[in-house]
Write a structure and sequence with these properties.
The complex is a heterodimer of chains A (156) and B (347). Helix content of chain A is 61%, strand content 0%. With 156 residues, chain A is mostly helical. In chain A, helix 3 crosses helix 5 and helix 3 packs across helix 7. The N terminus of chain A is likely disordered. About 1% of the residues of chain B have low confidence. The chains are: A mainly alpha (156), B alpha+beta (347). The structure holds protoporphyrin IX containing FE (HEM). The site of protoporphyrin IX containing FE (HEM) has 24 residues of chain A, from helix 4, helix 5, helix 6 and helix 7.
Chain lengths: 156, 347
Amino acid sequence: MKLSKIGLSLFTGAALLAASVQPAFAGEQKTKPILGIPKSSLDDFGGAAGVHAWVESLFYYIMLDNRISHIFREFGNVERQIALNTQLEQMVLGGAVEYQGASMSAAHADLGITMTQFNAVVEAAYNACERNNIPYKTCNHLIAALAPFTRVIVTR
Amino acid sequence: MNGSQGSKLRLWSCAAILGATAAMHSGVASAQYNDGKVFLTGGVFTVDGAGGGGAVPWATITGYETRDGINGGVGYTYANLPALQLNVFGGAIGFYDRFELSYATHKLSLNLSNLDTVALLDEILGLGLGTDPWNSTLQMDVYGAKLRLFGDAVYTSDSWIPQVAIGGLYKENTTGELVRTLGASKTKDWEAYLAATKVFFPLSTLVNFTVRYTSANQIGLTGFGECSADGCTNDKEFRFEASIAHLLSKNTAIGFEYQQHGGNLDGKSVSLAGGGLPLEGLTDLLGPLLPGVQTALTQEKESDWMDVFFAYAPNKNLSFVIAYLMLGNISVAQDQNGFYMSMHATF
Ligand code: HEM
């Protein structure tokens, strides 16, 4: 990887999110699901606007879920997370978008997230798909693309 | 009939499972209670009691618990085939998405006119075949345990490694006379299996392969191994099973199952008095009276089991499976295709 590119992303990240603390190390790689992600996935999600709407719904359902909402109230920053997740989800679906947040391991390392809490977020993800009329099959491409992060996000 | 002791034991096991699950529900073990698994990923209630599809146990651990706790449920299955009706009741508990204990009890009513004829003879001659002129019933209890070895069926979408588990089942057929009349060697035996399960999200499909080491005839409902004039054998062999479930939505699936069966009892005549008195002699006697008795009482080649199913879980506490079974030849009956319904209540 080019150092200059990392530097640039750090710089733009800092500029965009001036108020927030800088992550330990920036960037997250696209995952590599064994069956790939179809080229049309991002379009099927409604492009950048569709992904953004989906992420907003995701956080709507997360904040309604008593099993996990307290974690986000205490440690999260929903506005920042909506912005960064919109980037990340576009990236894993194959969009030419740069993700400017922390790596998944750095962002979640100290939260002690359990499998049960992770699954609660997955349930919110499916609810968000339903709410936004994204077909189940299309939704599963995003789930496949995000699933490998389980390894570093679930630490308990 | 000396079944009263057996049925008492069965009642106790049912009560124990109901009690355990109820206790979990009412919060006695609330610190460990957990229902965090994603929809349908614990499988449903198999006829063996273990978590899986309809007949095939999967590598997933039963119930909706994650590695953080305990969950479980009770199930009821009914299958209606032309010559038989099967009722299965049982329950299973999953511990930390790692270990599973299960129990199932089977009642299989055979309404076969040719067997009923033998039963009439049995009654007249007092042979003690375990048959009943109205409806012969086979009963079996199944105790199971399963241990998840490695892998994650659901979330490792970037790896081909499936979730893998080993399991053991102890099956106890409590209708020994009838099982021996049908030519089996043993009424009680164990089976072991190795299962591999993986969810392919981009295809919205779950795939499972299972290898079972067993000598069962019709999953043990007609006993284990075989007896003939040369004596009895009970040789276990590896048999192959598979399930494919395609998810139409997060709580609805359609799919197909296959279960290889053995051929221990193929071509055997239903024998009187546990093989000591083969039917051939009697049919010579009866031949002129009842033409075709001999062929009517020769057991067909045991078919592999297949089914297509539809599963629906309205919520995490309940799932329904409706299936069309293609079980082929069962004992002396051919073309046993029919309806299957199963309910699984999880707590
Ligand atoms: C695949 C699933 C997940 C993805 C893709 C994801 C994505 C993200 C992203 C992009 C951020 C922002 C990182 C940054 O601030 O630079 C973040 C932060 C956070 N996530 Fe997740 N997350 C996932 C699962 C979870 C789960 C299961 C929980 C808790 C139940 C959780 C709780 C949080 C919290 C509290 C933060 C804020 C951390 C902080 O600002 O220090 N996340 N996540």
